[in-house]
Amino acid sequence: MTRHARLNPEEIIRYQQQIKLPGMGLTGQLKLKNAKVACIGAGGLGTPLLLYLASSGVGTLGIVDHDCVDRQNLHRQILYHERHFGKPKVECAREQLAEQYPDAKIRVHQVELTGLNARELISQYDVIADCSDNFATRFLLNDLCVLLDKPLVSASVSQFEGQCLTVAGQHGPCLRCLFPVVPERGTVQTCEQGGVLPVVPGILGMIQAGEVIKWILQEGVPLMGRLLHLDMLKMAFKEYHLPKNSDCEICGFSRGIKSEHPFHANKRSHINMNEYHISPLELRDLLSNKPDIQLLDVRTTEKHNAYHIGGQHIPLEELPGRLNELDPDKLIVTYCTSGGRSMRALEFLLSEGFNLVKSLDGGMTAWKEQCA
After folding, report:
1. What domains are there in the chain, each with its CATH number?
2. Which residue of 172, 292, 315, 329 pairs with 244 in a disulfide if CB–CB is 3.0 to 4.6 A?
3. Where is the Rhodanese domain positioned along the sequence (predicted)?
């Protein structure tokens, strides 16, 4: 059992003004201290988020970013100074936060988040804050947080506008309910291309921090099923209702599987799911030596027709009724876009008595990066 930290006298003095708040108290402050939050991206959104989470007493902060401080970004990345130019963001952020908030535990991950490392990394944290600057990372986090039932607070900014929403793990709705298909690279302007007013990521980063704190405390009403949009030029906030899409391939799929074949936690508690992953390179080598492996694409027909690596195509929602098409005596490797659906398919097959099953780690996204 994990041993929880306690508040020391200095912390009680530091946080006494927020300890007075309804719903906070010493119990709430302890929840913050014992919480572990991952910040994916230490840029314009991530730096204000990190500052406010640390100042609020969140005990463990994980910072994920592979990039270095760039002078042209200092106007909005408020943790850094001129002396940090050219140095890794994660190290500079740790230095700054440790100086001002010595009680906070700062973990740094100087890596680019991909389908190969995301699962292991975000599994270490209680809440995930998406402060990334690209759609590939944003959707990867969405898919994995739904799969792992992790709360995700996601924000994005462009020019004078920004938006934020909270995805409540497997309870949906999720980002793919709003955008079923990942926008292609170059179709939406980035901050580097279109510019950004620095106060916009500052405001959105603070909103993210507020959502994270509310989630940890289990107080208030989170931005679940609601997309909050800021137009800075009009100084207007708008809220858009985001219904759960029953056809969403991540959070709304396979009602039949969920109702007829529930994945009970006690049924899987003894299973180490990491043992069922297979990397793209491992699969490529395996296929060259043993071509009779059963590849099973569980994506939609549209995605299968666009690109696949062969094998059978059985959309996840059809799997319960088509088990007779699979040979339980041959190795089955499930695959999808980024790994979420294929792991659900794997869990279902295990529950149905299929023992020779693997899931392609990172899905087609990782396969294209390494093997295509």
Report:
1. 35-241 (3.40.50.720), 255-370 (3.40.250.10)
2. 172
3. 289-372
